Structures are given as structure tokens and as C-alpha cells.
Amino acid sequence: MKIEKLNENRIRITFNSSDLQENNIDVHSFMSNSIESQSLFLTMLDEAEREVGFITDNYKLSIEAIALSNGTFIITVTRIEKETLKSTRVQAHRKNPVTQTNTLIYKFSNFDNLCNFQNFLSTSLPNLIEPLSGSTSLYHYNQCFFLILQNIDSQLLPKISGAISEFAVSIESSDLVIHKIKECGKLVTGNLLHTN
What we know:
four-stranded antiparallel beta sheet, Alpha-Beta Plaits, elongated, 196 residues, five-stranded antiparallel beta sheet, alpha+beta
């Protein structure tokens, strides 16, 4: 693991899968924002404070993460000054706070659970199939199936979550996770849920 101080308020942490193994974390757990990955990140911040004097107490942090194809991860951490926070809040209020679409990621541990979910939708909630049609992508990665639902109407989220929770586990959706699944996984179908 390498820690670089880019300026007074920004550092770059570079590490790879062997660093994860040393901390008993697999890549999937790290990508899904597990307790172990959060603990590792806090350890990295402590090390950054010792090595380069980057103090994060009483600061808001902006975190950018990139996963490279060679298994290297680059995390850029920026401390946000109080003045910047105030101007950011003002800008945020000018934007429309209502979000009409969302992205959800669900992990099926095996193919049977995926088929059972499809059957459940067909028989119990057929009215959800059409709104979801064209918004789904299914990837096979790390011996599991990942269903990515994009551009979902926020009013449908409770119904979807309730229906799928018996068959799959929700994964925290972020650009980093989606990029990792799409880069390392194999696309099975671009439209899993379809009308007959």
C-alpha cells in the first residue's frame, strides 16, 4: 500500500488485491462496502495520519475510488474545508432534490434463486415485469449472479425490494461497484425481465 500527500487537503492511497488478502478481505467484500472494508479504510486513514500528517478528525471527506483492470485500487481522499461546505450546500439547494430514477444491485447466490425470483414475479407480481423490462442487466461474476436494475421509478422501489429480498441480497450501488461487475463479470442478458 502506498500513501501520497497530493496537497494539504488531499491524499492518494494505492493498493492491490494482495493488500486486501493481508487484511483477510476478498475483492467482493471490499466492493460491497462490508464492515471489513470500512475497517480497512479507517486503518488506511490512521496510517495516512501517521505517515503524511493527514488529519481527518472534524472534517467532511470526499472519496473517489477507481478500480484498475490489473487489480490495483486508487482512492483519493479530499478534506472539505468549512467554507467549501457552505458553498456546496448553497449549490445543492439550487438543484432539484427529487430523484425519479435509481439504480439497484442484487446478488443471487445461485441460478436456482434467480429462476425462483423470475417465477415469483410472473405468478405473484406480473404488474412489475413491464415497468422493469428493458431496465435490467444480469452478470455472472465470482460464482454469483448480479442483477443491475437501472432507471427505476422511485415509487416502485418498495415493491421491488420486498419481492426480491426472499431470493437475493441487496448490494450497495455505486459507480465503483457497477464498474467492477461490468468489467470483471460476464454479461448473461441485457433484459432479464421480459413480457411474454
